[in-house]
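Re: that backbone. Tokens:
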């Protein structure tokens, strides 16, 4: 399929060349003088006259002022073909007749192509001028079709139309056939030519500019070389197409010729690199070297002149065809994807270039017709849009696939993390249970266990009375009960802790002959508290109450608890002798150690009127 594709294009070029040579042979036959010097115009349908036969006078710029006269010449005059590599001036004399009845109608004249500079006179009166006939290579291009309304008083039965042009080398100078007829019949044709020669190329230039800006925006966002080459290619094509329809060029010749060739060279270079990027495979070293040499010679050819540019373009056309063949052979699926669009863009641009070169050098009859370059620019822009769109779609699909893959991997990682988190939580629960068991065992060992050991020693020594042993056993039982109660206390609820102590110890306190005075307010929760801290606080208060029962010899025990914005204060006060287990026991030291562990302030002091006060301050702020 690829070879057939390339073969069809080569066959098309061969047919085009054959047609051009046939038209050239016909033109060479047409320029031979005939017996009549001036022929009347050939009528065409709808009362429109097409003036083709003219008496032509030619004066070359290097001919030392000598003129050549051709008594009968069939328009169009395509200057670059009969007067290759020459510049000069040409004057065409055309005659046409208008009967008196037709002269009353508004008439107009349409010249599809005329230039470079020109002057048009009818019956000796100047109708229109364009450019400067005396200044070679001025900025006037003569691209637009010339539309003239013919003044009715100026028209005669026998009319003579004289068209003088200044022809510059390689600027497509010449004179197309002239159409004369009623204004209503020629106006639609003129509008059609204006649309083909001016409006459509302007629209294509704007389209290429928009496509280039779009690709430039894609490159700015994604920084991919493909979009950069596509943007550069389309922007340069826009500049190249502008040279087709602009009438008054900003530079003189040959500076404008060099600028246009520069646009063409840079556009072809960016198109080549775009093709390399689309193929996404290392190019053969021979191709890279030849491309570098060929593109490197273009600026030198532009500097040397038009002949060198023509030679370079011929070699470039052959190299372009070879490149298309090589790229087509490398396509596994040439009719799908960006490679197909790239091959299409290359083929269209190559065909347009071959056709325009053939028309400009070998086909005089193609003088009135515009080049195919603008159509190549349009199709190349569409191909670039298709390539960019497919590449963008591929990028979006890759992002979607990557997102799906990442989501899948993320879901797997989340599942693993959830399993690991659950395992850690289980370990934390087990650790908390172990710590809770250790704390309970420690509390039982330090509390009930210590009292049981004391009772055993009392019994073994035989010195303690039965009452003392029973007191020790009661304290051991109370400590055990309080340890069990501590396991179910709400964390941070000091009111619940004090209520548990009162419930367990009130009867024992009253049995000891003490009057218990209870003054506890509704306390806030103790923040930043733990179960272990609640156990330490319980032991501190229990130890203080045990000291009062064992050593104070008091009759009253007052427990109060109040709170403010900063702290909770728990105070135990008795009216006893003020003798605490400070010097001979470990009670006070153990209480201080527990207070330090929970960040509480402990104060133990004697009152002036007797008795002892134990005060515990719990901070509400950390």
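Recovered sequence:
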């Amino acid at each position: 399929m690829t070879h057939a594709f390339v073969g069809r294009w080569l066959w098309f070029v061969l047919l085009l060349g054959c047609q051009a040579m046939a038209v050239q042979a016909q033109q060479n036959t047409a320029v031979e003088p005939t017996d009549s010097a001036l022929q009347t115009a050939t009528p065409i349908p709808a009362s429109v006259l097409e003036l083709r036969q003219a008496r032509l006078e030619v004066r070359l710029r290097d001919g030392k002022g000598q003129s050549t006269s051709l008594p009968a010449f069939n328009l169009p005059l395509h200057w670059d073909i009969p007067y290759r590599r020459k510049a000069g001036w040409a004057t065409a004399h055309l005659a046409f007749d208008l009967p008196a009845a037709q002269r009353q109608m508004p008439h107009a004249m349409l010249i599809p192509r005329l230039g470079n500079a020109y002057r048009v006179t009818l019956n000796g009166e100047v109708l229109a001028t364009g450019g400067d006939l005396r200044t070679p290579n001025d900025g006037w291009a003569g691209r637009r079709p010339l539309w003239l309304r013919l003044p009715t008083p100026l028209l005669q039965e026998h009319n003579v139309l004289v068209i003088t042009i200044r022809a510059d080398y390689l600027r497509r100078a010449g004179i197309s056939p002239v159409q004369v007829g009623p204004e209503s019949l020629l106006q639609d044709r003129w509008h059609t030519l204006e649309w083909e020669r001016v409006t459509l190329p302007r629209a294509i230039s704007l389209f290429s500019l928009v496509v280039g800006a779009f690709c430039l925006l894609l490159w700015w966002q994604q920084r991919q070389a493909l979009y950069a080459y596509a943007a550069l290619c389309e922007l340069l094509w826009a500049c190249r197409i502008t040279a087709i329809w602009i009438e008054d060029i900003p530079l003189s010749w040959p500076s404008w010729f060099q600028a246009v060739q520069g646009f063409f060279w840079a556009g072809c270079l960016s198109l080549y690199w775009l093709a390399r990027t689309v193929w996404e495979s290392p190019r053969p070293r021979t191709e890279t070297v030849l491309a570098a040499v060929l593109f490197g010679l273009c600026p030198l050819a532009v500097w040397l002149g038009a002949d060198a540019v023509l030679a370079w373009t011929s070699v470039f056309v052959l190299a372009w065809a070879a490149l298309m063949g090589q790229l087509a052979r490398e396509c596994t699926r040439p009719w799908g994807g960006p490679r197909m669009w790239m091959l299409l863009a290359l083929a269209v641009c190559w065909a347009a270039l071959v056709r325009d070169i053939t028309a400009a050098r070998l086909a005089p009859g193609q003088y009135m017709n515009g080049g195919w370059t603008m159509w190549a620019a349009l199709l190349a822009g569409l191909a670039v849009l298709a390539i960019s769109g497919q590449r963008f779609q591929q990028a979006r699909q890759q992002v979607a696939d990557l997102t799906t893959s990442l989501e899948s991997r993320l879901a797997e990682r989340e599942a693993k993390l959830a399993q690991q988190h659950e395992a850690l939580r289980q370990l934390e629960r087990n650790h908390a249970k172990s710590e809770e068991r250790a704390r309970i065992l420690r509390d039982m060992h330090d509390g009930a266990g210590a009292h049981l050991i004391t009772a055993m020693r009392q019994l073994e020594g035989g010195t303690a009375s039965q009452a003392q042993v029973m007191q020790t056993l009661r304290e051991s039982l109370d400590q055990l009960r309080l340890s069990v109660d501590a396991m179910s206390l709400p964390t941070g609820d000091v009111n619940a802790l004090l209520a548990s102590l009162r419930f367990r110890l009130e009867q024992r306190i009253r049995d000891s002959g003490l009057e218990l005075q209870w003054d506890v307010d509704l306390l806030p929760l103790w923040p930043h508290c733990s179960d272990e801290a609640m156990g330490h606080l319980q032991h501190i208060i229990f130890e203080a109450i045990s000291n009062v029962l064992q050593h104070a010899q008091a009759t009253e025990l007052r427990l109060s608890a109040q709170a403010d914005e900063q702290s909770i204060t728990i105070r135990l006060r008795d009216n006893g002798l003020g003798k605490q287990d400070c010097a001979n026991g470990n009670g006070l030291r153990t209480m201080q150690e527990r207070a330090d562990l929970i960040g509480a302030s402990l104060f133990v002091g004697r009152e002036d009127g007797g008795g002892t006060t134990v005060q515990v301050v719990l901070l509400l702020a950390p």
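The CA atoms of residues 264 and 451 lie 107 Å apart. The chain has 13 helices and 19 strands.
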